[in-house]
Design a protein that fits this description.
Elements lengths: L3 H17 L5 H7 L6 H13 L3 E2 L8 E2 L1 H15 L10 H8 L3 H16 L2 E5 L8 E8 L4 E8 L4 E7 L6 H15 L4 H9 L9 H18 L3 E4 L1 H5 L7 H11 L2 H11 L8 E4 L11 E8 L6 E8 L4 H22 L1
């Protein structure tokens, strides 16, 4: 447990390092921060913080830089009450973004873009899972005797579609009957609820092979759409960070972050345990060597198993207070939109 004075010294060092990306010495801290102690005391505190693993000295003659443990102590202090959630910066997405976004995908894209501009990091907004979303309407559009298009609209505004291919010819009238039947089964239900209902004896009408085949295609469509629903903006921002000035340093990070499955796993780990007001995973806490140089600030929006995720990914040397507030603002805006849809 750090004393109040050493906590202040650590916070000052982190703020200086975040601002300048250069190792920080005791003289810099005493000259630029009102720590209320002598330079000798600051030097002693820096030595103690280094011995405890909160900071490290890259070179013998250099100043110190924070370690993952140092960032963790700093972030824990922010989350435990040292951060004013009402301070700027704020994301005015609740009204401005919804005014120009007619569908959830558009809202997520614009929210992600706003987050990237505000934080100068990579922002990611992951849609709520369609597997848990309640279905509003299903449309079957005949393209030919052997081909059709299924379009699924969820109550939260998400839209998914899939091309269907039939081994035997299917007349438009038959397709229309299946559409009417499936809308009766699916409307107001999640896919999981609909599939459970379809297996029950109370829905003998779904004994029709065509209806069951289309329902399975709908399931495949929803499952595919639940992956690949991450809106990323700001990858180029990472390229401008000193930590990633060399392309070989960023290449493995980009490779992992472009994989939606990796992202979902990363956010799942970050949000495990329902951390509030948001979850922060720093460097080595991400569990993958390729991500040891980045931090993730993530928060869920929506409810239950269908919750989406809004997150910012940047170097461990990120402005945590600014990023955490920005993520929380985006989370509130997206949750307000979900509430408005219900």
């Amino acid at each position: 447990m750090l004393s109040d004075r050493r906590q202040r010294v650590l916070c000052a060092l982190i703020e200086e390092y975040v601002a300048r990306a250069l190792p920080v010495g005791s003289r810099t801290l005493t000259e630029r921060y009102a720590l209320g102690v002598s330079p000798a005391t600051v030097r002693n505190d820096l030595s103690a913080l280094e011995d405890a693993g909160y900071i490290t000295q890259p070179h013998t003659s250099a100043g110190r830089v924070p370690t993952d443990a140092g960032y963790r102590a700093f972030v824990d202090e922010l989350l435990s009450g040292g951060l004013d959630w009402e301070e700027a910066p704020r994301l005015d997405v609740a009204d401005q973004l919804r005014a120009t976004a007619s569908e959830l995908d558009a809202l997520m894209e614009q929210t992600s873009a706003a987050l990237a501009r505000l934080t100068d990091c990579l922002s990611v907004v992951v849609a709520p899972s369609l597997l848990s979303a309640h279905i509003c309407q299903l449309s079957l559009i005949s393209l030919s005797d052997h081909h059709a298009l299924v379009v699924i609209v969820a109550e939260d505004g998400q839209v998914a579609n899939r091309h269907l291919t039939f081994a035997d010819p299917v007349a438009p009238d038959d397709l229309a009957q299946v559409e009417a039947l499936l809308n009766r089964v699916l409307s107001g239900r999640s896919l999981a609820e609909a599939r459970t209902a379809a297996r029950s004896r109370d829905l003998e009408a779904l004994a029709d092979p065509l209806a069951r085949a289309v329902l399975e295609e709908v399931a495949a469509c929803v499952q595919e759409s639940s992956l690949g629903r991450a809106h990323r903006v700001g990858m180029s921002s990472l390229l401008r960070k000193p930590e990633f000035a060399q392309s070989q340093a960023l290449a493995p990070v980009m490779s992992m972050l472009e994989d939606d499955t990796v992202l979902l796993h990363l956010f799942g780990d970050a949000l495990a345990g329902g951390a509030a007001p948001c979850a922060v995973r720093i460097g080595s806490e991400n569990g993958a060597e390729e991500l040891a140089g980045v931090s993730v600030v993530a928060s869920p929006y929506g409810w239950g198993d269908g919750a989406g995720v809004v997150a910012v990914i940047g170097p461990t040397r990120m402005d945590y207070s600014r990023v955490i507030r920005a993520v929380r603002a985006a989370q509130r805006a997206l949750s307000d939109d979900e509430r408005a849809e219900r």
